[in-house]
Write a structure and sequence with these properties.
single chain; about 190 residues; alpha+beta; 5 helices; about 30% helix
Amino acid sequence: MILVDSALWSWREQKWAHLVSDSSYRELHDFASRLGKRRISFQGDHYDVNESERHDALDLGATAVGCRDLLKSIRSNGLRRRNRLEDWNIICDQEVEGSSIPDLIVSSVTSRCFSRQLVIQLNEFSPELTNIKVKVLIVQRSDQAAFIISGPLGECKRKTVDNDTTWARLSSSGINTTIEIVEGIEWS
């Protein structure tokens, strides 16, 4: 079951709540994806949702609970992580030519395993990586690496990747396409 507490916490001029699962992280990630949350925003055992997202979550079937009940539920089901995930280190946040993205990933991500897997996942989407400029954000922390590419990427062959170590999503609006890939995730 997906649980959401009240939007009580203020940050950046909005009120925020917590979205959790009482049974598994996979259930939480699947629900958060349906809600439109990026996988990169996972906080270790929850997603933060603003008031609007909270209402959408309730419309999608989440159960409203108090913050103490939410915490009690994830603790009793072994889903509470005492140590928060470390912050993402921004490695690259710039506009680059699309065709240079694989080389940029390999040269930027310090873990060769992560950089190789990120490039493999990008290739699975088979976007048209032309010389057109696109926005690239590459981030890393000790156990994960991720990137978000946004711009006129052209035709892509896949929509999602979802397995034990990788999560990816493609979204399009007009001529802009966004690919978000997170490598090294823990589904627990």
